[in-house]
Amino acid sequence: MSFSVRDGKLDVVVAAGPRVQLWPSAGIRSFASLCAEYDLQVGIYGPDTLSVRGLVPLSGTGAVIIAEDPQKRIHRIHARAVLRVAAPTELPDPFPGWRSQALIPLSTARRLQEQVDLFWAPRTVILGTSGQAFRFGSDLLSMSRATDATQVICVETHSQWGGKRFAGWEVDRRRFEMLGGKVIEGRPVSLSQKAPLLWEFRIQDAEGIRILEVARVVSAGPFDDFSGIKESPPGNLLFDLKQTSLRTEEEDFDGWNLEEERGRWLATRVIKGLVTELGSRKDDLERIARRAKNRIKRSFKHRDFPFHWDYQGKWTSAATQRAVRSFSGVPQTAQKTRMVASLECFEEIGCNLCEKVCPENAIRWARGQIQAADAAVQPVLSEKDCTGCGLCLPACPSSSILMIRDPEQSTQATLTFPWKGSAKWKAGDFATLVNRRGEILGTARVSEVQGAAQDDVTAQVQSGDHQWVKVEVPSHLAWEARGIRRSKVQVQASVAKEYAETQGTDRRRDSKDMVEITLDGEKRLIRDRVPITAALFEFGIARPEDVLYCGDGGCGLCTIFVDGVKRSACQTTVRKGMALRNVERVLGVMGDAPGISPSDNVICPCVGVKTEDVVERIGKGQLGSMEAVQALTSVGCGKCHGQVCTEALRRLLERSGVDAKGWSDWQFPWGEWTLAPTN
Amino acid sequence: MGLEPKWDSDIVLLGTGVAPLLAAARFLSEGYKVLILNPDGDFFRERSELPLDPLLTSTGEISATRLSRSLPERVTEVIRPFFPGAIETWLGNETSTGASGGTTGFKDPMAPHVRARSRFWIDSDTFSLRERNLDWPRLEELYVEASDAGLHPQILQELTAIRRFPGVNRSSREFESSYHGLWVPRICDVDVVRYQYGLLEYVRERIGGSRMVTSASQVEWIPEGVRFFDQGQYQTARISKGAICFWTPRLTRWIHGIAKKLEATIPQPGGVRVWEDWTLVSRDALDPSVVGVFEDMTVFASYEGAPKDPNGVHALRVLRPGAVVGLEQAMRIGPEQTAGGLESFRALERLCGQMLRWSAFSVRSFEARVLLEWDYRKLAQPMFRLGGELSKWNVMGGADGPLFEVAHQVRKACNVFEETLS
Question: Which domains are assigned to chain A?
Fold first, then answer.
């Protein structure tokens, strides 16, 4: 019995860091292909090949990568340059109660949403107002059952800067608000349990403390404005790239584009550092670097040229109305005679899915009119080519396209909205019309409901999930009403009907999917054939260590005894009769460390370090680096390896005047690494 | 460019770790005006100071004299004069299992500590301490020497021996080998980080933040003083008494560059050794009062202050020496490259499998710490001069290693320095 270690050497290694989601992602592909073009040997190590355990930085440049293959052999690769790609955990600054099971990162929420039937009612709060936050909020609002009547609130925690937003933020926010979501500014104060699956969340806003009863708090962030690329320490060719392509390309187009360009730009840096004789290819490389840099800059250009909606009461101002009506994606005359698409996507974004699905080539992306000539690439509608087929409506991930017919001589106009919600419409229903901010403008009758126009497109958009809902509206609302919602009366009626049908029983616990298990000696019914972590969350019995829910067993935090054997809860599925026993706290597993109470403002739950202790140490010692703070306080040295606290610590240090912006944590290993000798 | 009087100093200290702080504390107490230059961004990046003496060097031998240097009283005697505040002590006899009650004597939990922990060399017929140039007959000799020196050693045999080793799976019944070990009580370790922090706080308060320059780049020794780049411009400090540069691994390349430029012959360390600092997760609670030695590895429970966790300590720290790399080669390849290789994993496997009886082990952390291998017998004086026009400049070797050894070396260097002044 012994370990097998294989040594290797490469120019560049691309390594999957903790919590990486899609692999290989867009940035890796652009980075690796460009490096390979310049004859650099590139190794890409991720979940599907070698699991990278960490790296040991060398005193000059480069590092030694230590990885493990599926046969448990260890590989030691000397790399002259390293690119680590990781998805940040996106947890907020600590406040009392933040490490409870009620607060989960967005990635965990997404996984749970796909696997189990979670309670999101009466209210779900999302911390952060990124595009991802709004998209998740919109999904919750549109996918929730009618009985839930869930209220979703996004809390903007850092109102003093708007730099966290990618392009496309405006349309995502618009969709979220039209579906009934609310956005408030505030700072979390505390989170405490009131009842099973019900928590009291206190937020400090401009008017004082706001108390919300919530089922869950989803942490989406971002909570700072740090760049997506870091080289730490400068000049050693060890790079960190923030993964922004977190979902499929269709669902996260801007994140994909941004990561791709960042990957390309980083490749130019590495090539310049490693290839000594570029010769005639130097100019090409400079050109690629320039172009990538410009595109990255363009992704944030909306910060300088945001599209402002100016309202007078519920109505858009004349100036905004003029800007909207003259926009290149909005029809000028065709809507007077027939149904035609109106592409109201005013910010510059990388997405061009509508262009791709249009069978008539009536949509193209070109220089727009609202912003300066050097800026926006925006949709341009060719009115004469648009047949009003409506295929572009479901293709738009942000629902910013609708069909409009607004005859000049009529008092009625017709609007067709895309509908992705699980509660379907039928002709004759009454819909509540809302403006772009989600404010109610009136009601309208649904005149017609259609499924997909063509089978293949229907398949693309998950057949049956989308509807084209045609409503008749008064002409004066034709350019104001931009969404439909079910009225509260309808929702209440639906609740009553469903309650009568189920005779008041809880649908979930009656489900045939439930099985009996034993948890810490008590018999419980939980969902069968789902990961234990998901099942524990569904019934509100998850532990603090389950909140990261990495999904691949990489973090090793969620260990639990299953029939006496220690296993990862996220990797083990529930089956009938299993006996689960919570693992005793072993050297800090994100539970309450000794001497720490739930009301303490703990920054590092594994080691049990309070925020005020860190602040005091920084202040007294005038510490100048993350290393010093970590060495003195042991923040980030616990079992989660800093996944919970490092970003919060970095923000704390930045606020305390310590330059930690470009710092990367290369501590080895990146997650708990269990080794067993093989034969 | 004119001279900046605000930088003018009696003594300039250049270094990256704890050594310049120690020297500053000493010179400040004697009324000198001190300027500290650190090419690093912080004093905590050096990481070449060890909390305890692993009792292994390529040239040194373990003797009762060397063991005596690690006694808590002796160590406190060395480090105490430099430190302005309280140093807490833990003698380890409050409890042997790390249960509650071990905090006796700790009044300030944020103060640095000196802790007495027994050192325990274990040997058997399936593994040995040969990597340390030790065998059982030599340990028996050491037992006699230690007894004569009043260190109260013990010889432990079989189960009594193996059960005292930190991290051993006590439920395992498969101890088929024959074990024997040498037990020497009260060999101490020191909290490096808190000691350094306290010193840093004190020195900064005394000399002011502006005279403690971190991230000082392009440092250049000139006959009348030192020139360096700070806050966007070149600064020059005139030196009236002299300057000391503390040779630590992070400054090796730089010192070699200067020596080469001056064509000076300088004493060389025997090479560079990478110490692999592993932290493993123990299933059983660890005995915090023992530091075990298995083969060439030093194994002990990792915790701060006195153990107070009611569940016991579970982080098992393993200090493993890597191979010694020649200085030239180390500067060329980066010595950390040798860390974490096949030998390391096999050694860990032997420790966890043969000794501790674990079926698997979890790595919590790993760090490659680079230390210079000084042969103190050849380094007759703690300091040497580069000569030529830079007569005010001294270089001190041995500014890395066990903290109390660094402090001892700095004290010697300061004495020599002051003798030359007088």
Answer: 5-88+234-302 (3.50.50.60), 103-219 (3.50.50.60), 311-490 (no CATH), 510-582 (3.10.20.30)
